[in-house]
Every structure is written in structure tokens, then in C-alpha cells.
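Hi P.,

Sorry for the delay on this. The queue was packed all week, but I finally got your sequence through. Input first:
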Amino acid sequence: MKPSIVFCISLFVLLGGMNTCFAQIVNVESARMQSDTTGWMGNAGVSFSLNQSVKQIVDIELDNHIQYKNKKNTDLWLLLTSYGFQKGGTQNFVNNSIVHFRYNHKLNPWLRWEAFTQLQNNLITQIRSRFLVGTGPRFKIFSTKLFRLYAATLLMYERERENTTPQIMHNDIRNSSYISFTITPQNGIEIISTTYYQPLVNKISDWRVLNQATVKVKFGKHFRFSLLWNYLHDRFPAGSAPETTYTLKSGVDYEF
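Then the structure:
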């Protein structure tokens, strides 16, 4: 399948799935598959998490990740989807699904340009829907076999509808900057940490910060165990949702 066809399919999924999507900020850095291999790569997995926000929440997710790298190693297409089941207290939710599409173009050995679009919702944090589209540069600051360091600063349009009465709608421009490092102490083991900072362009006091740390351990030819810690602080959350939430998640992925 050609990348242009993948792009069309991705847009179709995005436009057709406007009531889906899960976390407030998606860490694409932890989803990237580092490889010199061109062509198609991907993984599918299942995970379990325990969250504490307004209520204690049990979450089970099914994830899928597909990426394509062209033969010149200059263009990367990335599609992430996720669907899950959540239980908060005595209530059941089905709201943790996501569609995220990203394009990455290599300009030189240390600079890439990225463009992305995403749809999401989270009823627990009172976000009925959030649509994002953005673009910006991604910098390779340092890279060795054992340690890699990246940074990026992107500008994005955000259209958010709160799950409140009366319903509140936001149309904003945000900066989305992040710094990410990966440690590979030995073959088959990766430690990834990424910190995002997302302020409104016209109101710097309205900001979100996410820190996510992931440990990935490969076992066998195609399987990988992952342990993820996710911390989010939203200075002005939707409705009466808490400013701070966190997630501890473990799972198993199948790579292909």
C-alpha cells in the first residue's frame, strides 16, 4: 500500500471517528519505533492501568501502531489508534480511544519537520471532544547507541468541547514543546522519558504539562513488555475536573 493511500485512509478514519479518543496529551515519542529498516513496521498490544483522579479508575486498552518509512529514509508516516474500557467507581465508561496521524520529513541529519492531527475525548476529565492539528520542527540534539536526546516546538490549533451543562466550546492556538530522551542500556531494553509543555499563545498562564516515562523490555522475537508512568497537570481543566491526574500502566505488545 502506498503512503498516499495510507494518508487518505487516515483522514477518513479521523473524520469518521470524531467521537473517539482517550488521553489529554499523547506521547508520540514513546510510540516511535527506532529502526534503520525502511517500509512497514508496527505493533499491537494490550495493557492494564490503575488511575487516580476524581475517582480510582481501572482501565484496559487495546493499542495499534503502524508506521511507514520510505526507502530514502526521509519521510515517516505514523498512525496510532487505541480503544479501551474504563471503570470509575461504580460507573463504566467507554471513552479511551484515540486516532492520531503524524507525518515526519527529514530536512538534514539534525532537523525534521512534523505535521499532525488528532481527535480525542475523555469524559472523566469532562472533555467531550478535542480536535488538534499542528506543525513544527523537531531537533536531534544528541544521538549515540546508548543515549538519544530530542526537542521540538510545534504550533497547534485546538478545538475543544467540554462535557458540561451548559456546554462550553474553545477555539485556541497553543504551543506544544517537548524534550525527550531515550536510554538503551542493552539490546532489548529502552527507557524513554518525555516532558511536554503546552501554553496558550495568547494566555501564557493557561498551560498543561505532561511527563511520561516508559520502560520497554523485549522478550522473544516479537513480544515486548512495557511499564508506563504518566503525569499530567492542567492549569485550567475542563469543568470541575482535577488539575492533576496520573496513570501507572503495564502491558504486552506484539511487534511486526
